[in-house]
Design brief:
Layout (H helix, E strand, L loop, with lengths): L12 H30 L5 E5 L9 H15 L3 E4 L5 H10 L5 E6 L13 E5 L2 H11 E6 L4 H15 L8 E4 L1 H15 L13 E4 L2 H12 L8 H7 L3
Helix pairs in contact: 1-4, 2-3, 2-7
């Protein structure tokens, strides 16, 4: 036998394309399974509050202590607390809730450099796809509490504001914590986005800025005092198209 015959020959381009298409098709089933599993596991956690913040801020930092206090007070008030399940302020949120009355939930994401799962979770759900994870944050939350953070935190914040603005989800409190951190962005929203008519002036009121943990809890209760935490039939129908 000619030794050259043992060298594997490259696949023809049409076979490579067919193989890739097959993998893409199977990936759809993986995504469906991810949605189904997460929905089944999280269905009983309402009312819940999603808390976002930097993965780069650790114990000993004032932001960490503030996040932990907010999560603990929300948990003691009866709210399940949902975080990204990782380190930093995600850990602070889970830790505060873990030591409170209501469940602590972590929605962890699998990354090329593995994100460490924090140990303060009553329910831990792992995701491969960012978009499936983001749907779960919105689907089960009655409020968003947004701590200081980077691109990921801003991504979740703008996603929430877009969904509320376009009525894909019901209006809910979107609360920014620690006004000095958010001041520049808020000035840009009010000055540039509103000034150049990129958003309506009323859209600014989709955002609340609150600094004290007790006031965060009160703002959420105040929002739902008249209407209750349960979504209406119309709101549930809209969420199916999230």
């Amino acid at each position: 036998m000619n030794p050259a015959d043992k060298i594997p020959r490259p696949l023809a381009p049409e076979l490579i394309e067919k193989s890739w298409s097959g993998r893409e098709a199977w990936r759809v089933f993986e995504i469906i399974a991810e949605f189904a599993e997460a929905t089944e596991r999280l269905n009983g956690i309402r009312p819940a509050v999603s808390i976002f913040g930097s993965a780069r801020v650790f114990a000993g930092h004032p932001y960490y202590a503030l996040t932990e206090q907010i999560a603990r007070q929300l948990s003691d008030a009866g709210f399940t607390v949902i975080s990204g399940g990782g380190p930093g302020l995600m850990e602070a949120a889970n830790k505060g809730a873990f030591h409170g009355r209501a469940p602590s939930v972590g929605l962890n994401i699998q990354l090329p450099h593995e994100q460490l799962t924090n140990p303060y979770q009553d329910i831990s759900q792992s995701f491969r796809h960012f978009f499936a994870r983001k749907v779960m944050f919105a689907k089960f939350a009655c409020a968003y509490v947004v701590m200081p953070g980077g691109f990921g935190t801003l991504d979740e914040l703008l996603e929430a504001l877009t969904l509320v603005q376009t009525r894909k989800i019901r209006r809910m409190p979107v609360i920014l914590v620690h006004e000095p951190f958010w001041r520049g962005m808020l000035e840009w929203i009010r000055g540039t986005l509103v000034g150049e008519k990129m958003i309506d002036p009323e859209d600014v009121h989709l955002i609340q800025v609150i600094d004290r943990p007790g006031d965060v809890v009160k703002a959420i209760f105040d929002h739902y005092e008249q209407r209750g935490f349960e979504a209406s039939a119309r709101e549930r129908e809209a969420q199916l198209n999230l």
